Amino acid sequence: MNFSATSTTLVLIDIQEKLLRAVPALEPFMPRIEMMLEAAAAMNMDVIVTEQYPRGLGNTVPNLKERCQAQWPVIEKTSFSCWGEPEFRKTLRQSPKKTVVLMGIESHVCVFQTAIDLLDEGYAVVVLNDAVASRSEHDRATALELMRARGVWVMSTEMLLFSCLGGAGHPDFKTVSKLIK
User: Fold this and answer.
1) What span, in angstroms and rounded, lies between the C-alpha atoms of 166 and 149?
2) pLDDT of residue 25
3) The CATH number of the domain covering residues in 5-180
4) Does the pLDDT at position 93 exceed 80?
5) How far apart are CA 123 and CA 121, in angstroms?
6) What is the DSSP letter of 126?
7) Domain locations in the chain?
8) Global pTM?
9) How far apart are CA 46 and CA 29, in angstroms?
10) How far apart are alpha carbons 87 and 59 in whole angstroms?
11) Omega before 106 within 30 of 0, i.e. cis
């Protein structure tokens, strides 16, 4: 499969104030999530941000929110799967892009259910294994194993970024390679 910024939509799932406190295991992955958001902005990648019941769980954490571009939609949801939210489906269907990259929390709930629903809808799905977390490592590992078995591409952030660049001749190579270092 060929990956490119022009054929891919990135989804940041539910990294919100109260959820982050409940999932301290995410903290080591935050630098990769930050890097991916910055690279997505540099490469003009489509990005969708979701927030699970923000009135109760707060909004996207400030260090990620400040990396988000104004044109990136922030979609409120109450279903665990992003696909269960009509506004998410509408936003994704408006784009001809058929590859969706997922990162966020929790791996075994919202990320897992979204990945499976997207596969069932005919999308190619990538989960960034260094940018997803669950409260327990066991749940995270189980989710990654099951998603891989269903046909989800499980990749690291760096693998995806270099796949999108394709080579040192890409116009965003210098910007993205600085983020990786």
Assistant:
1) 26
2) 78
3) 3.40.50.850
4) yes
5) 6
6) E
7) 5-180
8) 0.96
9) 21
10) 17
11) yes
